Amino acid sequence: MENLHTSILTIKALKIVILIAIVLAVFLIKLASIRSKKRIVYYEDNYATEVEKEKIKKSIEEYTKQLETAQTNEQKAELYCLRSKAYYSLGLHSQAMEDINAAIALCP
Length: 108
Known about the structure:
It is a single chain. The protein is mostly helical. It folds into two domains: about 1-45; about 50-105, no CATH class. It is built from four helices and no strands. Helix 2 runs antiparallel to helix 3 (about 75-90) and helix 3 runs antiparallel to helix 4. The termini are far apart. Mean pLDDT is about 80; it is low at about 40-45.
């Protein structure tokens, strides 16, 4: 009978430990999310200057031309990545995501 009582107490203690672990995991995930959002805000505040934006726009045009003549999927994927970075620098996030997804589709 005493073994049964000890087993029940052990199970209750394990339930408490598991609950504490879950709460701690949720807290750490939320903390990481908050830190990630702060980094995104930091980078969004550091967009390119007007002169740099013009250079970036020319780069986008050049990458687009090169995409038309690229022969391998690796070359196309590289160009999509470069153009995605340029779009991101201009704050054009949806275009940047489209190019990244195209690069991943070509070279998973």
